[in-house]
Amino acid sequence: MKRVAIFCGSKMGNDPKYAGATKELVETIVAKGIEIVYGGGAVGLMNVVAETALAYGGTITGVIPDKLYEMEVAHTGLTKLYRVRDMHERKALMADLSDGFIALPGGVGTLEEMTEVMTWAQIGYHSKPCAFLNTNGYYDHFISFFDHMEEQGFLYKSLHDQAIVEGDVEKLVGRLE
Predict the structure, then answer these.
(1) Cβ-count burial of 101 within 10 angstroms (0-12 exposed, 13-18 middle, 19+ buried)?
(2) pLDDT exceeding 90 applies to what percent of the chain?
């Protein structure tokens, strides 16, 4: 894997474990020579991703829509920063630039980004791995909902099985590789 997209919160969350796990993940990825693509923000866990990658000498590319750039939430010290028209263009470019995807804790935007790339995998647009870093059980309820969707006949087992879910950074990165 040459480059991985990270989807995560524009907020820090209430538990410092989220920032700690984010730093650990980014340090591990950078140490393996894997480049990072993320949403381009300088706020919340997004900023932790960027600052950690830069501190450890990593290559980090941001993709940010004009509206968010104009709201002054863009990180301007990245290796590369793409400005795009909207969220649709952001997700498409992030997917094109990446060999896999990791969701860290975040809100509805993070879930929407990750479920969209999983949907693209389901219909055959790509076969890139999709992983959730389940820090402190953050994604337990979401993954349980996957079980429910499958039980109710709305989710293919293959898509459910495709989702890599790990609470441990080393295991997650190992499974992605």
Answers:
(1) buried
(2) 92
